[in-house]
Amino acid sequence: MSSHHPTPEFPAHLRALYGRFAFDRSLADDPISVIRPLARDPRRAEIAGIFGATLAIGNTTAIRGAIGDLAARVDGDMARLVDPAHRAARRRALASFQHRWIRGDQLNHLADVLTAYYRRHDSLESAFLAGWETDGFVGGLDALAHVLRGTGPAPPGYPILFPSPFDAPRSPCKRLTLFVRWMVRPGYPDLGAWRRIPTGELKIPLDQHVHWIAYHLGLTHRRTRSWAAVEEVSEALRRLEPIDPVKYDFVLCHTGISGDCPKRRDLAVCGPCSVRPDCLMWRRRGPGN
Fold this sequence. Notes:
Number of domains: 2
Structural class: mainly alpha
Strand content: under 5%
Oligomer: single chain
Order of helices and strands: HHHHHHEEHHHHHHHH
Distance between the termini: 25 Å
Radius of gyration: 20 Å
Number of helices: 14
Shape: globular
Number of strands: 2
């Protein structure tokens, strides 16, 4: 493993990157830009959030298109996905849906699972909270994954849409972790629909952009994405911001998506970057390079 660590000035550098970040520019490129208009109340926020996070595979343009397509099939009201009165119409509307390897029959099954769950519970927060109270964030994510997998027969490939951190090979569970971030954080641009989970307990949704940047800043020594890497990055950020460690997730992610981090040495792009002094790609070279 690399022995690279952030510089002592890193906290100030990261806060500077956050402080001058163009949130409005990046929001338009983020899946949550499609979710926010659909989240007219906590229940709709939760439904739009779990379907949107489930579809968060691939580039952001394709993800936003898939969420928009799904919303259009239910006339812009995601609550119809879990309304028993619309079950037959929903099945027909989703039959031709496809995004990457996610199919309409899988989303229809998720809608059935949620419909059954909401007959007995007000919110998925209850499922997460039950696991969290016993085993912390990992337990909460595991409990949530098991609820979403449901019981009984499911379409091919459906259960693997909802991995648990306890499952081999210890997946980073990026999409479920992203969903929980959306639900728990009240800060922009998240939804804050859940109120019983402290923001300080959140873990980083470790996509490829965040992992690449985190590794090169010394926030993790792990070269592959895994739950162990999630824990390392989250703990490093928690030392900087104990109350809200994942506030930096959006900034780190979109620094990569936007090309502000070109993932190679490019002084024209990297020169103004606040965290360049901490970056492994630049610290490996001597002065003047």
